[in-house]
Amino acid sequence: MEEIGEVVRLVLKEGRTQREVAELFDLKVQCVSKLVRNEKLNRNTAVQLKEKQLAKSKTRLLIKDCVDEHLRNHWHIWTTQQVREAVVQKEGPLVKNSEVRLVLRQDYNMRYRVLKKAGYQGNSQRCLVTRFLYAKKMFALLESGARVINIDESWLPHLDFRNKKWKRRGDPNTVATKALSPKVNMIAAVDTEGRLYLSLTQQNTDTDVMLMFFSRLANVLSQEDKDWRDDTYWLLDNAAYHKSADVRECLLRLGVKTVLSGQYAYNAAVCENFFGYYKREDQNPNRERASKK
Asked: Which domains does the chain have, with CATH numbers?
């Protein structure tokens, strides 16, 4: 506001040309001309601009107040219209969508992005609590130097999992593939040191298969180190055949300490990373016979 008064003073009081003043304040000549004209007509431009600025500041505070209320109550902000209506309910003025967007971007660093939908069950209060307790337990184990072996299963319907390739425009982008018959199931155990214990079967993974794998894995670990049970934990997900009565009895008999992961905690399972890595490439590049037929 002081600069506006100085612009007007230099032109009207000191007789400086509008071009000189425009260059001095890095303004357009048209802007200086408008300020001088309004001053001559007693419109008091500086006061009007100050009032507009105060009104904008007040509106911005009202918008921020409504956004803060949404964030405190964990309400999703779906649209700017939602915030506009909240401002009106607080007896505020009718604000523009652009004003709400400006506040969300500049004051809260928010962006309007495509929603990543997840099943409600995965974000339920119970799942959030179990994932929190699981993370807390894992941090404690890892800080203590314990050895954690993550055990999980996947299946291999075919041997080439690549799904993209370069092609020229207009050329077909199809590749012949052959399903494994019968399909192969993979059971993997990966520990915190990067050791991998792998089993391939041609049966559906169920309690009986897992009981056999657990027994064989305990046998292998005992051959490596007879005292492996002292600082080793087996990490399992919440599949039914990981926590059935027979499995619990088997683990108890084997003397294994176990941890069940939080529900839907896929990102924290190292086996999922291994399966993803394994399935990046063609596992049968020489086209060896891979079926009984």
From this structure: 2-106 (no CATH), 122-278 (3.30.420.10)
**Which residue in the block uniquely carries the two structure tokens 């291999």?**
156
Q: Which residues pair with 156 in a beta bridge?
A: 184
What residues contact residue 131 under an 8 Å CB cut-off, 6+ apart? 262, 263, 264, 265
Cα→Cα distances 228→9, 141, 147, 271, Å: 87, 15, 9, 20
Give CB contacts under 8 A, 24+ apart, made by 202-208. Answer: 205/153, 205/155, 205/241, 206/241, 207/241, 207/244, 207/246, 207/247
pLDDT tens-digit map of 183-238: 788 999 999 999 999 999 888 888 999 999 999 999 999 999 999 999 999 999 88
Sequence-separated (6 or more) residues with CB below 8 Å from residue 82: none
DSSP secondary structure string for all residues of 142-193: HHTT-EEEEEEEEEES-SB--------TTS---------SS-EEEEEEEETT
